[in-house]
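Page 42, continued from yesterday. The earlier attempt failed because a stray header line got pasted into the input along with the sequence. Redoing it now with the clean sequence only.
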Amino acid sequence: MKNKEIFAGAAAGALIFLALQGVNILPVVFILGLIGIVYYVNFGRRSCNSISFASAERNICSVSFDDIGGQEVAKNELREALEFMKNDEQIRLLGIRPLKGILLSGPPGTGKTLLAKAAARFTDSVFLSASGSEFVEMYVGVGAQRVRSLFEQARKTAEYLKKSSAVIFIDEIEVLGGARGQNNGHQEHDQTLNELLVQMDGISSDDRIKILVIGATNRIDMLDPALLRPGRFDRLVKVDLPDKKGRMHILELHVRNKPLASDVNVEALAKDTFGFSGAQLESVANEAAILAMRDGSDKIDSNHFRSAVEKVMMGEKLDRLPSKEEKRRIAVHESGHALVGELRLPGSVASVNVASRSNALGYVRQTQENDMYLYTCDYLKSRISAALAGIIAEELIFGNRSTGGSGDFKHASDIAKQIVYSGMSELGIISSEDIPGDQLHSAITSILRDVESSTRDFLSNYRRELKRISELLLDKETISGEELRLILISECA
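This time it went through. Structure tokens are written below.
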């Protein structure tokens, strides 16, 4: 390194001296620049690859399967697959081919990286991680070289730490392992994928260092078929969003080091966070603690968690201040959503708000008593009714509509389309790919008009409740689901 610095300093000094003597040094600078670029591309980048590539975690991972909540099925399936790495002697006795790769597939934030780290600890392996985007370069051959370096680094690291196995984790593997033949500009992507396939094929039970490749993706449809065949990625493990029980487990893990007030109910919080990933649940616990700190409280109460859920879903409150008339219209609009949503789907409203967050001037946060995996036509139409109720409430109170319903219309149309594609419309069983556009439009319009008409008739009978809820919203800005239900009980009594 010192010799290079001395040479660079001497060369710079010589160039300055020549320039002061009136010599034209531009051609020399140009040639030296070209030599530097060629050196960097051919030697510098390769050296970088072999030394610092992939930000490898060389230490043994501290994450265990017990630290991961809400993924019992995925953990059990992964443990079973990893037993092959632990019981080497039994594998040889039964003539079992070792698993070379495990693919974790699921939405973002569900814990795929944590599962890979836990797998490394479970098998007492070293853990190296990389992202698929780190292999993609404009220079031909660089990506393939990086793949070779990663596998070589895994073996050397395991030897250095006196381990018999290594786990290579590749996140966003769809970037590296996308279907071949789709890049017409150059073959760099295909060469990189080919190298990964060759390296995985070279994994053998006779290797001194056993290597397991774990890939993670949320776009499994983009992967090349050659990567998914047995002998490469032998197991596909689904890592789905957690159910209510799983969300409770995750929340309990994240609040175990936090001081909670007596009114915090983790089960109720798990119910309110339907559809949240593990990462979002961790953020809820963290944001609740931040809100408690802002308030100067030494404990985190249920209001902090309620605000944290809304912040994670919708973003921070904005300082946008609508006019008095606009705010009244927003209150009526959200009251319509809440009223129809609660009466058509009892217990579904978690909170009603007229505070601006993100792109929403107001919003109704809905949840459900139990996780649902199948939806009936009546249930879907009830959701359409709740979506259209805001703009219908505006019509009933003000006699006209506003632009505030554009997002609701798109949501209602998407649900109507789901009804059509599920064979529950007047068209019966259809092919979603072959249905003519005019027939699809006609079926969706028919569903929306029927639901709009029934919602208008339904909401007309609750004008008094609609006004009461909107007035309370203007006064308090936020109403919880419990408060809404108490209003409906008192008004309907």
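Notes: The radius of gyration is 30 Å.
Reminder to self: strip header lines before submitting.
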